[in-house]
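Subject: two folds for Thursday's group meeting

Dear M.,

Sorry for the delay on this. The cluster queue was jammed most of the week, so I only got both jobs back this morning. I'm pasting them in the order they finished. Each block is the input sequence followed by the predicted structure tokens. Could you check whether the formatting survives your parser before we put anything on slides? The first protein is the one we discussed after the seminar.
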Amino acid sequence: MENKKTGIEFCEEHQSRASETQILSLRKDIEHLQYVIKELEGQCSFVKDHFSTKNGERLDDVKRLHERIDNHLQGDIEFHESVRKKISDRFDTLDERVRHLDKWKWATWGGMIVVGALLGALLQTPSPIKGLSLM
């Protein structure tokens, strides 16, 4: 029975050593995994900071581009408004000149009619049409 007893003791001792090595191995694995997790968390925070910084920089770049485009558009709008104003001023000037010339044209025609009527009355010449016979 001692053999059986020693065999049991041997198995228990062997089992406790095997358990101890397994526990040590598991502890090492746990420590290694904790180290890996800590490293990954550090890298993850670095990546988050890096991307948020780069993302902020890109957003600032986009804002600057939008400001430049808006300034350019505003400059174009001001240019087109000034050209439109110059054209309108020129059109108004030409319109005034045409109206002025139109007034003189009608005044001249009126004057020519009056002068013609006066000359006709003064000269009292018969019209060449009255004495014209067609047949």
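Second protein, same layout:
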Amino acid sequence: MAKVANTSWTKSKIVDLLKNNDKAVERALVVVFNNQELDEQAFDSTHKANGIGFTAFDAEILSSFAKHILKGRSLSVKQMAIARKQDKFGNMKIAKYWKQLQAEIIRKENEVQFTYDDDTYSDHFKDANGFRPRGILWDQWMAQSPAEKQKEWDRLQEKIIEDIEREKRFNHCLKKEVDNFVNYSYNR
């Protein structure tokens, strides 16, 4: 049995979003269009029964809408109405693709974003510790997995921020002491 991913994006939540948000409809059209095979995209059609992309009935019109959006344009009021048109059961045309949209949401939620950079790690390390990582320190960095590197990068970033805040507090106290000394000297 296939494992179902844990997501808060249910069918009803996706349908409600599509019903109330024009940008969500436009994004949905592009997501489903991107699921089409390349030849299906080129000819605004569906001829492979692979369970993804637009249905044969919707492919021509909805592919043209997606291409329109991909050119940086928004849908017109009439195009939006067509995308949201309800069938005899009250289901919106675009909403029938909710499972593909949910799969894309899950894919995006599971996508890991790394902010560390091997090329600037030495500078980052020096900002946090006052010296560059050499020898075993550098070798340890290079041997880590991307997730471990990100954790170390974040730790260094927190240390840098703490050091900056500490220096600001110190400078503020120093300024107060200097001001007090100057005021004391003038009042004598």
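Two things I noticed about the second structure. The chain has nine helices and no strands. Residues 121-186 form one domain.

Cheers,
T.
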